[in-house]
Amino acid sequence: MSMEAQAGQVIRVLVVDDHALLRDGTRRILEAHPDLQVVGEAESGEVALALVNQLHPDVVLMDISLPQMNGIEVARRLTQDHPDVRVLMVSAYDEDVYIRGALEAGAAGYLSKTAPGDELVQAVRAVAGGTNVLQSGLMARLFKPQGQPAQGGADLSERELLVLSLLAQGLHNRELAERMNVGTRTVDRLCDNIYAKLGVSSRTEAVVRAISTKLLIVPDER
Q: Which stretches of the chain are DSSP H helices?
């Protein structure tokens, strides 16, 4: 499927989880919607890689805790070998190190297994359409105030890099303006510049893109 999901087109999904009960539950949630079709299931990373070659899904729902090869490594291989396939991590782990690792591996989004079914459905549709997603609350928590933007990349100015790091901390435009001692129109213009340079259309996408390209560095837990 192209980056822009076509109206009425069925989204082909591969579910990867080592628990059969969870795979079955996910299938039931997704296939209650006519635009979503589970084309296959895998209980390991090796099987997932083989099925992607055979089934050509649009979206892969990927657990992190898998036997032998973890989901982050599988996501890295998939995004390298199949750049058109979108990987959405759905994991019981919500520690920052796992989220950061998944996004740096090229995952298009990250949800906790505690997310309600309707949020999962919306996330699958979003990543199939080319949007990056993070479960509510994860983006603001993911960054600590001491997190520093990496220099260079995407030709962002020093001021734009500062705005990007503040966006990653969950600040809204009014708070950004107060923190930087500028007007909200200036912040709006800086955000627009950032989105244009990164090729995105929202703050969530900007932050995910910045993590995945290591433009922003998430501090390790100590």
A: 20-30, 45-55, 71-81, 96-104, 117-128, 138-142, 158-168, 173-180, 184-198, 203-212
Q: How far apart are CA 217 and CA 147, in angstroms?
A: 6
Say whether 43 sits in a helix, a strand or coil: coil
Q: What's the sign of the alpha-carbon dihedral 176, 179, 185, 188?
A: negative
Shared-domain flag, residues 131 and 157? no
Residue 220: inside a domain: no
Same domain, 34 and 48: yes
User: Which mean pLDDT values do the consecutive 10-residue runs of the chain (222 residues) have?
Assistant: 57 96 95 96 95 96 89 90 93 78 86 89 92 70 48 70 79 84 90 88 78 62 40
CATH of the domain at 56: 3.40.50.2300
Q: How many CB atoms lie within 10 A of CB 184?
A: 13
How is 75-132 classified by DSSP, letter by letter? HHHHHHH-TTSEEEEEES---HHHHHHHHHTT-SEEEETTS-HHHHHHHHHHHHTT--
Residue 28, CA distances (Å) to 61, 120, 121, 154, 187 in order: 14, 12, 11, 41, 44
Which of 105, 139, 173 is a domain's end point? Answer: 139
Q: Which of 112, 139, 166 is the last residue of a domain?
A: 139
Give domain status of residue 54, yes or no: yes
